[in-house]
Amino acid sequence: MRLLALELIPSLLDVRGHIPRFDDFRPTPVAPAPAGAARALAAIIAVLAVLSLAIWATVWLATDLF
């Protein structure tokens, strides 16, 4: 009964035709990741490595000097 009421309201307002059903979406084949994604991942890893090395060097210098 609850589902009927939920279907009845959009049909009375004449918006049911604008709401796509799940059957309208066909699954598409998954495309392989482009080469740009691998380069971006490598750049992120390199930046994180440099930042962690800089933090480690700062802490090492701070503990060595004091």
TrEMBL record:
The lineage of its organism: Bacteria, Pseudomonadati, Pseudomonadota, Alphaproteobacteria, Hyphomicrobiales. The chain crosses the membrane at residues 41-62. Keywords: Membrane, Transmembrane, Transmembrane helix. It comes from Bradyrhizobium frederickii. It comes from the Bacteria. This is Uncharacterized protein.
